[in-house]
Amino acid sequence: MKAETQLDRRARRSRQAIKSAFVALVLEKGYDAVTVMDVAERADYNRGTFYKHFMGKEELLKEIRDDFLAAVSDALLDPYPGLERIEADRIFPSTLLLFELIEKRKDEFKALLTADKGMGIELMNALRRSMKDDMRIELEHREPPVDYEIMLSYQLSATVGVIMYWAETNFKYSARYMAEQLFALNRNKMKSIEFTHKPE
């Protein structure tokens, strides 16, 4: 059993080294320019070791993307184990955890954005699935009533938009600052709009 555990650990280390090498190379050269040989050499393995774990760079990319999106979905629920309900003004912990996760894995996220042009949509869909499967937002009664699916799309678009802006600025703000900004945006209402063009 001990030998099997050591093999499992060795396999996990090998897979992680390959993933780390791939991410670094995508950030350096772009996804299309990266070859299996490049990844194997950067990870200090041969091609055979790479193919022992992954069929090709497409499968490697998919595993990194799937793991990242699963972690993003988990971040929404992890702060509230055992709770059945929480007030909307107390969701900051999950907002912060989401941004901290992305900050911790920012190289991975940047590589995914480089390799997968649809990553923003993938991120939104992962959040949507988690929110639809694991929770339901209770809305205040207003006239006219707000359609739930439209509201959900609006909230998700805003969240992903803020995350994408953060990535575009190369994560120049801290995760806490971004979480605070998103939380404030969700609670603020527009007061007025001032037009900056001068009438002729």
TrEMBL record:
Coiled-coil region list: none
Record feature DNA-binding region, as residue ranges: 35-54
Residue span(s) of domain HTH tetR-type: 12-72
Leader sequence residues: none
Alphabetical keyword list: DNA-binding
A Pfam match: TetR_C_8
UniProt key word DNA-binding: yes
UniProt cross-references to InterPro entries, sorted A to Z: Homeodomain-like_sf, HTH-type_Tx_Regulator, HTH_TetR, TetR_C_Firmicutes
Annotated protein name in UniProt: TetR/AcrR family transcriptional regulator
Organism: Paenibacillus thailandensis
Lineage of origin: Bacteria, Bacillati, Bacillota, Bacilli, Bacillales
